[in-house]
Amino acid sequence: MTKLFEPLTIGSLTLPNRIIMAPLTRMRAKQPGNIPQELNAEYYAQRASAGLIISEATQVSQQGQGYPSTPGIHSPEQVEGWKIVTDAVHQAGGRIFLQLWHVGRISHSSHQPHDSLPVAPSAIAAENSGTYTADWQETPILVPRALETNEIPGIVADYKAGAENAKAAGFDGVEVHGANGYLLDQFLQDGSNTRTDHYGGSVENRSRLLLEVVDAVIDVWGNDRVGVRLSPFNVFNGMKDSDPVKLFTYVLRELDVRGIAFIDLIEPRAALSSTQDHNVEDTPQAASLFRDVIHHTVLISAGGHTPDSAHEYIDDNLADAIAFGRHYISNPDLSERIRQANPLTPYDRATFYGGDQKGYTDYQPHKDKAA
Ligand code: PHB
With left for phi above 0 and alpha for psi between -120 and 50, is residue 176 left, alpha or beta? Predict the structure, then answer.
């Protein structure tokens, strides 16, 4: 038996195992209003045997939405909807953090207040990228509007309000989404941030917004209930940076000093996982590159894991816990299946995004053939 099934202390929380349900966009919030509902509660409660559930990415403001039917955490109705989810997970014995999200340039006017342009650090469109309009039409990415410096405190305030709402909704903590080419990642990386104010230029300046958001969220939750998701070397959503090792070493050091609950680090091999099954080849291994930077926080490794790689990462001390995304879609009892070395049910990409219970709450836990 490996350490994968030993309990893990994350801040003031004890996880019964080290298998984490990764944040997964499923686009099944109730309309109008992007409100979590009973169906979502059933889905999350089915997965409560995970050491920790991290919710699907959840927009902190209307401006932060980029895809249809993703849930929000900025209206009273959304807070009430999330309470149904957190109650169901807790009743089933689980723990759940909310992922706080702003998509920045990966939006479309149809999601924006007053049909305006999506916002971003700089007026640079994401290459090779797309999204869906509010009425589910595939659309290329627009050239966004660069945020004015005096708008940035409002963005930080939106994350803080999202963190307060997550507390009111009964979550156990929050994860700040700093990955995958969304707003905070757009500020971090110099392929999308050419600003000349103190939010652009040097690594310190490009990291400022993420760190201001993290500090604001720590004010609400305390450092031990705040995680951060990062994706160094990621190419999804048109991302690039001239020196990712320097950038992410700085960011990770700053987060480590804050003693946050965890860093949720995505392996670059999984950069195309929201559209493709295979891993990207010949990518660096983020866990081994950055493991030594982290001393005061827990490292969760995510992206393209198999049961074998999960055991390996934990046994080799490359990470403290392992997040699974796609396998959690089709294996609600994933932690038990891995513990028992039972086969995994394959997932069906056609039912990842949007729709109803099909491909969402109808995957069954493993049944012993002999039983
Ligand atoms: C997606 O909806 O495709 C998506 C959302 C959040 C992510 C990655 C992909 O972090």
Answer: beta
Q: What is the DSSP string of 152-179?
A: HHHHHHHHHHHHHHHHHTT-SEEEEE--
Task: Please give all residues whose beta carbon lies within 6 A of any atom in ligand 1, as ranges.
Answer: 25, 57, 67, 179-180, 274
Domain regions of the chain by residue span: 3-368
How far, in Å, is the centroid of ligand 1 from the Cα of 4?
Answer: 26
Residue-level pLDDT, tens digit, the chain, 371 residues: 579 999 999 988 999 999 999 999 999 999 999 999 999 999 999 999 999 999 999 999 999 999 999 999 999 999 999 999 999 999 999 999 999 999 999 999 999 999 999 999 999 999 989 999 999 999 989 999 999 999 999 999 999 999 999 999 999 999 999 999 999 999 999 999 999 999 999 999 999 999 999 999 999 999 999 999 999 999 999 999 999 999 999 999 999 999 999 999 999 999 999 899 999 999 999 999 999 999 999 999 999 999 999 999 999 999 999 999 999 999 999 999 999 999 999 999 999 999 999 999 999 999 876 55
Catalogue the E-assigned strands of 162-239: 173-177, 226-230
Greatest pairwise CA separation for the chain in angstroms: 66
DSSP conformational letter for 279: P
Spatial separation of the C-alpha atoms in residues 83 and 359, rounded to whole Å = 23
Specify whether the backbone of 93 is left (phi greater than 0), alpha (psi in -120 to 50) or beta: left
Closest ligand 1 atom to 180 CA? 10
Rounded (to 5) percent helix, strand, coil in the chain: 35, 15, 45
Q: From atom 3 of ligand 1, which residue's Cα is the shortest distance away?
A: 274
Q: Whose CA is nearest to atom 4 of ligand 1?
A: 25
**pTM above threshold 0.85:** yes
Please give the positions annotated as active site.
182
| Residue with CA nearest ligand 1 atom 8 | 180
Q: Does domain 3-368 have CATH number 3.40.980.20?
A: no
Query: Which numbered atom of ligand 1 lies nearest the CA of 179?
Result: 10
Secondary structure element (H or E) that encloses residue 58, with its range: strand 52-59
